[in-house]
Amino acid sequence: MSSAALYHLVSATTLLLLVALLLLGLSLQLGWRRSAVRWPHHALYFLVTAGTLITAVLAALAGKPWWPAALLVLLLLAMSRTRPGRPAHWRLALVVGLGWAGAALFCW
Question: Residue 39: enclosing H or E segment and its boundaries?
Fold first, then answer.
């Protein structure tokens, strides 16, 4: 498998995981089964952060712009600086989601 194909596969998978993470975060924000949903939310956050980092590396190897994914990794790491349930947390999550959408359009 070429590095470009691997880049597309990993970035598409990460984007799908991000959508699941955002939907799960929305369910937490709305108060749906908080105790049962919190650990999958954190697991998805880890997978999305790792997938975004791997996407940045694969983009560099494929000769594509790597810096949008690297910036998204920094934004994802900044999530720990915000308190869950507060407006700053979900606003940053929306910025990450929109950033991923823009990076996907820009880099593909």
Answer: helix 34-62
